[in-house]
Amino acid sequence: MVLPDTSIWIAYLRAGGEDITRELNATLERREVLACGPVVAELVAGTRPADRATLVASLAGLPWAELDHHAWQSVGLLAAELRDRGQVIPLTDLEIAVAAHSNGAALWTADRHFERLAPLLDGLELRLIG
Fold first, then answer.
1. 106 touches 3 (CB < 8 A)
2. Which site from 68, 79, 90, 128 is most exposed, i.e. has the minimal number of CB atoms within 10 Å?
3. Full-model pTM
4. Inter-axis angle of helices 69-84 and 91-102, to 10 degrees?
């Protein structure tokens, strides 16, 4: 399974991301794509009003990477550990990384700051592009 973050979905939804489009289409056809709340929220918030209903309906058919109370504790502990090191990563990105990790999915992203999270989340697989 793979959890594409917002950067991947944006490249997919915009014209010109042919490699991502091809790979995400194949992954969707194999039913190996997870969605999570922070990614869906970011996508919906950034979508034109005329396109929101279609986007919401399309994403609603995907399996969901839930965050239970243990996962939320992990988000907080991860944020605290990073702050102790003098690093700040947006809380939504921490939530996305923990959602992928706690659901056994690879995190597919174009954002390099996720590289700082992988060593802190034992077993988090990153699929970085760009």
1. yes
2. 68
3. 0.93
4. 130
